[in-house]
Each structure stands twice: as C-alpha cells, then as structure tokens.
Task: structure prediction
Amino acid sequence: MTQATTQDFQRAPDGSDGPGTPVAELRLPVEGMTCASCVNRIERYLGRADGVVAANVNLATEVATIRYDPAVAGRAELVSAIAAAGYDVRPSAPVDAASLTDEPDELELQRVAELRDLGFKALASLAVAAGIMALMFWPGRPLAMESVNWLVLVPATFIQFWAGRRFYVPAFRAARHLDANMNTLVALGTSAAWGYSVFVTLFPHTFMATGLEPETYFDSSTIIIGLILAGRWLEARAKSQTAGAVRSLIGLQAKTARIVDQGQERDVSLADVHPGDLLRVRPGEKVPVDGLVVDGSSAVDESMLTGEPMPVVKSPGDQVIGATLNTTGSFLFRATRVGRDSVLGQIVRMVRESQGSKAPIQRLADRISGVFVPIVLVVAVGTFAAWYLIGPEPRTTLGLVAFITVLIIACPCAMGLATPTAIMVGTGKGAEAGVLIRGGEALEIAGRVNTIVFDKTGTLTLGRPEVERVVAAAGFEVEEVLDAAGSIERGSEHPIATAIAARANCDGLGRDGAVDFEALAGTGIRGRVGGREILVGNAGLLEERGISSEALAAARETAAAEGRTPVHVAIDGRLAGLIVVADPIKAGAHATVAELRAEGLEVWLVTGDHRATAASVARAVGIDNVLAEVRPADKLERVRELQASGRVVAMVGDGINDAPALAQADLGVAIGTGTDVAIEASDVTLVGGEPSAVVGAIRLSRATMRVIRQNLFWAFAYNVLLIPVAMGALYPFFGITLTPALAAGAMAFSSVSVVLNSLRLRSFRLRGGPPGPLASQPSAPALARS
Result:
C-alpha cells in the first residue's frame, strides 16, 4: 500500500504536529469495514494510540492514513490499535505514493478475489433459496411438510453459516464493543428464522400440540442472505474501480527517453533519466520528463495539463512538461524534474490524496440500527418473560413463539433492500440515458450538490478547433482566401491547419496541391499553390515579409478579444484575408447552465485557458463566476475553497488536468468523450459527452434519494407497528397472537412494497426540465466579407 500526504485528518486529543514535531505517515489497508460506525471506531482507537498525531479512515478505499511520531510509535503499534478495534490490516508492502513505477498491486488482487467470492456466495444463496421455495410451495407436493423440512435443513444450514459468515463475523466484532450495525440486524433476523425452523424440524409435535402447523422459514433466511450479498457485490464492484485513475495517469508517461551524450543518441528507460541529462524529442513523440528547451523549436500539445486545445510553441528557454505531446518539430531539452518530482508525479499524488480524504457516506440504516437492534433484543426478551410469567398455558411454548415472532418481524430484509433496490433501478435508469453513476455514495452526494464547477475545453466546448468565420480583404473573395489556405494547410498536421483544411474541404475548396511547402516554427507556413505564393500564419509572419495587416486589424482585435485565434492569409505579397479559429461551444451548454441555475445551483467556470477565451465562453453560456489560466493544483484549490465555505461541490471535466479536482470534489462528473483518467477519477460519467446530462444526473439522484428515504421509513414503520402485535398486544382483546408465519408474511410484504416503490424510478424522465434560452448561443461557423 502507498504512503501519501492527506489534508483532512481527525486529530488525536493530545496530538500535535507543530514546528519541531517529527511526523511520519503510513497508509494501511483495512479489512472488514462495512459502515460509517466502523470508520468512526477505527479512528477513535487510532486517535487514542500513543504517538498518533492524526488519523483518517476512508470507507470507499478501505484505507487508514495515519500521521504519527516515529520516535513513539511504529507500524506494529498502529496495526495493533486497528486490531484492538476489531479489524484486520491486509498484508501489503508500503511504497512511495508519488512513485511513477508500476508496482504490483497486491491489495487490488485481494479485492478482485473478494469480489469474486462475494458474487459466488450471492448466487449460491439465491439458487438454494429458489430450490427450497420450490420444495415447500410446489402445488400438490407428494411429501408431508415434516419430510420437506428435513430435506431443506442441510442446504439452508450450509447457506446460513457459509454465506452468512460475512454477517456473523462483523456482527460479533461489533457486539464485543457493545455496538450494532446492519450486519447485526441481518445476523439476528436470519438466525431467528433459521433457528426457529430448526426447532420446528426437530420437534414438530411440540408445535402441533398447541394447534400450530410445523411451518419453517428456511426460505426466508436463505433469500435474505442472498439478496443482501447481491447488493454488497454491486457496491464492492464500484469500489474496485477506485485505483484506475492512478494507473491511467502513470500510463501517460513515455516508456523511454532519448539521451544525447557527446553527440551520440541512445534510448534509455525513464528510470535512467536524471536531472541535468540532455534529451531529444522528435515529431509525434511524448516529452519524457520535465525540462527546459536548449535548442530547436516545436509546437507541443499541453492539453493534458492545461486543458488548452491549441498547441503551444516551445523555443529555447521555454519549459516543457513530461507526458505532453510534441507535434511537428524536433528539439533538445535539459531534464529538470523526473519521476515523482515531475508535474505528472504531482498530479498522481494529488489524485491519491483527494481519493483518500473523501468523506465516506453516512448510511441512515446503520445509524439507526445502533439503537434499533438493542431495543428489539430487549423487547424480544421482555416478551418471552411476560408470556412465561403471566401468560396462559403452554406458557413456555407461546413465549418462545412470541420471542421468535418479534425477531422475525424485526428482520431487516426490507431495511436491507431499501437502499440497494433504489440504487439498482436509479443507476440502471441513468445508464439507459448515458449517465453512469458509481454506486450509492455518488447518488447521495449528487442529491445534495449545490455548486457546479465546469471545466471549459471538451466540457462546455467541443474540445477541437474549428473555423468560425473567414474575413476577406479588399480585392479578394472569401472562397479564394479559404481555397488558398486550405490547399497549403493540407501539408501540415497542426490542429489549426487541420481545422482550416477540413473547413475548406467541406466547402469543396482547398483541393489544389502545394509545392515548396515550408513550416515556419512559431509563425506559420509558406508554399506555392497554382503558381501563387501563399503565406498562412500570425501577424508577425506577414510583418517579416513586409506585408501590412492593418487593413484587417479591427477584425483581428475583435477575434482576440473574443478569445479566438486569428490566422492571416497572404497571396503574392498582399493581405488576402483573416481566418478566425475557435473551439465551438456545445449546442446544449447554455440550456444546461440555465437549468442548473433554475434548480438553485451556483455555477462556476474554471479553466486553464486564456482569460479572454474563458470570459467569452462564460458570457455565451450564462456563467457569472469565472477563474481562468489555472493549473491542476489551482483547480483543486478552488474546489477546496468552495468546500471550506460549506458548499457541496460537483466538478465537471474531461481531461487529465481535471483529475485532481474531480477526485477532490464531493462529486466528480466526467465527460465520457474525455480521457480515461478523468473517467476513472470521477463518480459520474456522462457517456454521450453532452453537458445537458449533468442536469439529468442531479435530478435523478435527488429522486433516487427521495425513494430511499421513503423505503427506509416504511421499512422501519412496518417494524414499529407490528412489533407490538408480535408481542401479543391483540391477545387480551381478541385472544389471538401473531404467528411466525404471519410475521414472515408481513416481512415479505414490506420487502415487496420497498421493491415496488423503487421500481417507480423506471418512469423517471432525465430530460424533462424546462428548456433554457438559446438566443445567445453562438451561431454555426459563417463566411463574412469585410
């Protein structure tokens, strides 16, 4: 397991990490946690250990991050503290969190094995339950009920203690510390049904003597275990994806580097690169490490870092970042930062920190069960005592039946189904609309979000440059300008050149071949088309050739103010026109922002792009809060500031540069057309790439949480209303008692009602909101004449 720096810790009562205090940090994978009470208990035990400064336990990642004084405590003492709380530490060799080497992940392999085991036991339990029900309720069965009971005794007992061990062990651990959780409820409920059934199977005449049928509930105990294990399998499957973001980040780096030593070039692994080494990068290769350019120039695609879709020209003295993509030229640079010290290494560290510090979901059922279970136990024991002391004969038998009936009526089947059924239907409905929600925690947080932070590139915009308009100078036609530029740009691989060539081709232009083609680093390109000299590039290129661009100065300045990229075209030494290139805004962006604001959410735009571009996009989509020219660390810090002010923050992004902020946010929303890293670091993925799906995701989450609360209310209401009946409240008035069979029927009815309530989500409309105004939406690219 890795060590990492984490921001959010629960301090020990006597802890201090002031100046002069030596502090080490250790991350330990913890086994056996099932709810928020487990997290709180482990943090309390660690906080009381000598030398511990702070402890943070994350339920989602199942990792305890501990800061401690190494002079007082060590790994053994910390493991002992966790063991004293009733939990185990998985064996794992610690490595440096910022390392970018591909270490074998033993913890991940353990979780995969656990997931497989959980799924197998869930299927086995449900299969056995189906077989038991077939035997017990098959019309016209040839066997008497007593014989059927003996037939199903062995498979039901096997499931009870083989698959049910997952509930017994943590329930026992909680009981040792005078605590209770969902496992306690499952263990008590299934044990009551199974134990009663065993008693009926072994002593059927005892019940028949009282006029009761020898009915058993082996089917109830097995199906409860199977359904709840299936729900936990779904949850564990979502948790197993948390390590994917870090793996994808590490996979971004180049595999090798080309070192230049005494005029000779040789390829080496990244582990052999050190600060100060001289390296060469050729066209189409990734920059291996961080460094400074010393010779040559090229355009480098830094979108993975800044989100800026336009490649940045690099010349001697400029900084280059590892894992960015060199596009056209070749250059030499000197390494400055490598491995965990590089920008990529810092992003990996930030993602790990943010994932580790995210607060676990507080499960309502587990909070209530801490009080509910002891009350049920006291009531059940009191019921038996009351019947035994003052009840009619046979007092012992009636008391035992009442005792078991109370436990069966309080069986948490409906309580256990309340959340997973709603989550299954809600996430399934979302998947149908292209909204992938990663489990119940994401659903709960999405329902509470009140602030949305959008990245720009690829999120609100298409993420690729397109020609927005063409302006022709006097004496030239717009088609002539686009034809000349498109013909010569066909020989370039620059993204802007690709956009111009694509627009020309779309209009049936730019088909002529270019000769004497030359790429001019940092300024543009030149060549001859149809015997005419063509220049395409910035204003500086034209000035170098003695061509004035003042005739289109106003159009150029307007484009720059809007955050667009103006590209000049000269033909035979004369200014011919201006091509304005931009990253177009997605069609539904304005409506999305309008709907989010109508829902009462505060909307932000945080981007690494230029201020003018960010301001232009914000105006177009209706966002008032804008933060531009930021790096990944700045995005993460903005999210933290919003969280510190009490906001529940959702971050929407698509790039590698968004990964730290996506992981830090209360809810990370990734555009599905973006990078795998952003998707893996997120809680919600919008497969279609349309920002409008954010509104649907928020509304679906709120609807799902309403259903979950309704389910939990009715699950507890059934118990609260029927427990007095199970105790015998009706006997003094009507001379009747609630039998275990009726209790099981009531339990089944409560379960069915919970499932049916969850199924209502299937009719939920994700796209049902009011349409936002589109009048200010940018129009499609157009040709213009000055």
Notes: The radius of gyration is 33 Å. The longest helix spans residues 693-727. Confidence is low (pLDDT under 50) at residues 1-20, 93-99, 354-362, 768-786.
